[in-house]
Design brief:
CATH class: Alpha Beta
Number of helices: 10
Strand order of the largest sheet: 6-7-8-3-9-10-12-11
Number of domains: 1
CATH architecture: 3-Layer(aba) Sandwich
Shape: globular
CATH superfamily: P-loop containing nucleotide triphosphate hydrolases
CATH topology: Rossmann fold
Helix content: 25-40%
Strand content: 15-25%
Largest sheet: 8 strands, mixed
């Protein structure tokens, strides 16, 4: 079995809702709730769900940019909170994040060569002529012309900016890339090129990948396994072929029909507030299969055979 690089263990993140002149807490936003996922070396996991379901918050928890309210993240089996200084440095080398907005994720005052070289300098991986050579190699890897080295982000297209971000992420020879909606701000043709680049990189370099998106088609192209998130919770996880062929959770069914533009698949009712979620199953207010048990009992995410996980009283 491949070694697990990152693992979320009952991971929870709640943000206080503040109101009034004194900004007193009036409630909690359930951004991520009791999530468990593991990302083995060399494997690819897709995370899908509607905007606002907690996907980006989960990504930031996994890399230590946010502190969890409860639960923990483990790096090679060790909780982040207990990592030594050298282990934290190794985490920053091995796990790299690629952001949704490529222009906002880079320093606008820096030139392309400086942006790509920065991780190499920080981690003392190259200097002098070797540093210059590595920058050229990384730009070539993401299919950027050497002539772009001296340009600044404002002089680049969105697709070029994203390739710079990918080159920067690859500089430390990571074991895992976490891609947070990396094609959401790009047009369709440029986004398709970035997907092709990411697929080639993961296959040729043996990289593990966590690809976060609301686009099931993009996730199914890149990932071996898909996890479906609703209101901060994982409601189903399965191999990509199994999930696409026969989704078990009603929410996954709706996502698949939506991806195929089946307008009859629109969920009934409004999405519940993640400040005041419903009792029982959080999807029940929109679920065509909901019964009394769904209102009363919160379904656990259970293994249903063949490695498939489902949180539903009615399936299978």
């Amino acid at each position: 079995m491949p070694q697990t690089i990152l693992e979320a263990r009952r991971l929870t993140k709640r943000f206080p809702v503040r109101a009034g002149l004194l900004r007193r807490a009036t409630g909690l936003v359930h951004a991520v709730e009791d999530v468990e996922v593991a990302i083995p070396a060399g494997r690819s996991l897709g995370l899908v769900g509607e905007s606002g379901c907690g996907k980006s918050t989960l990504a930031r928890l996994l890399v230590g940019l946010l502190e969890p309210t409860d639960g923990e993240v483990a790096f090679h089996g060790q909780p982040l909170a207990r990592l030594t200084k050298p282990a934290r440095r190794q985490l920053r080398r091995e796990v790299q994040l690629i952001f949704q907005d490529p222009a906002a994720s880079v320093n606008p005052r820096m030139r392309v060569e400086e942006i790509v070289a920065e991780p190499l300098v920080i981690h003392r991986l190259a200097r002098g002529a070797r540093l210059d050579q590595r920058v050229d190699e990384l730009l070539q890897t993401v299919q950027l012309l050497p002539a772009l080295r001296r340009r600044r982000p404002k002089d680049l297209s969105g697709g070029e900016c994203q390739r710079v971000g990918i080159a920067r992420a690859l500089a430390t020879d990571p074991a895992l890339l976490i891609c947070d909606e990396p094609i959401a701000s790009l047009d369709v043709s440029v986004g398709a090129q970035i997907l092709t680049l990411l697929k080639r990189l993961t296959e040729t370099r043996g990289l593990a990948l966590l690809f976060i998106s609301h686009d099931l088609r993009a996730v199914s192209y890149l990932c071996e396994t898909i996890a479906v998130m609703y209101l901060g919770r994982i409601v189903e996880q399965a191999s990509t072929p199994a999930l696409l062929e026969r989704p078990w959770h009603p929410y996954t069914e709706l996502l698949l029909r939506s991806a195929s533009l089946d307008l009859t698949a629109a969920p009934t009712g409004e999405r519940p507030s993640n400040v005041h979620p419903p009792s029982g199953c959080w999807f029940r207010t929109r679920c065509p299969l909901a019964e009394t048990v769904c209102e009363r009992d919160d379904p656990a995410l259970l293994e249903k055979g063949g490695g498939r996980l489902v949180a539903c009283h009615k399936r299978p």
